[in-house]
Write a structure and sequence with these properties.
- This protein is an alpha+beta fold and 120 residues long.
- It has a single domain, classed as Beta Barrel (OB fold (Dihydrolipoamide Acetyltransferase, E2P)), CATH 2.40.50.
- It is built from 3 helices and 9 strands; from the N terminus they run βββββααβββαβ.
- Strands 1, 2, 3, 4, 6, 7 and 8 form a 7-stranded mixed beta sheet that branches. A two-stranded antiparallel ribbon has the order 5-9.
- It holds the Pfam family SNase.
């Protein structure tokens, strides 16, 4: 993976921390966790119990999840998004930072309470 910045063509915004690029690449924003959307399997009773002691338990505030997704869409649409690829997660998604005009999308969401820092 390259650490260089490149222009990112965003095809869709899945939620507050996952997007799909125009070439089909799935990208997970590095170092943040956004709330889940309604219907997320992470919010089933079984998953919530399994993840309750995790450093990153399920965050099932669906209204905030919707707001997080919508704010990420607005942020990325405010200019030319840039991507910095950092690696790949266990689900095969590219881990990356996305920025617009030098402003980091993840930090933007964290400052607004629409995402939290990922705990390692």
């Amino acid at each position: 993976m390259s650490l260089a910045l490149a222009i990112a063509c965003i095809a869709s915004i899945h939620d507050g921390d996952t997007v799909r690029l125009c070439d089909g690449e799935r990208v997970r924003l590095a170092n943040i966790d956004a709330p889940e959307l309604s219907g997320s399997p992470r919010c089933s009773a079984k998953s919530r119990a399994r993840l309750s002691a995790s450093a990153n338990p399920s965050w099932c505030d669906f209204a905030t999840g919707t707001e997080s997704r919508d704010q990420l869409r607005s942020f990325l649409g405010s200019g030319s998004p840039m991507i910095q690829r950092l690696g790949v997660d266990r689900y095969g998604r590219t881990l990356a930072t996305l920025s617009v005009n030098g402003r980091d999308a993840g930090e933007y969401l964290v400052r607004r309470g629409l995402a939290r820092r990922w705990q390692k």
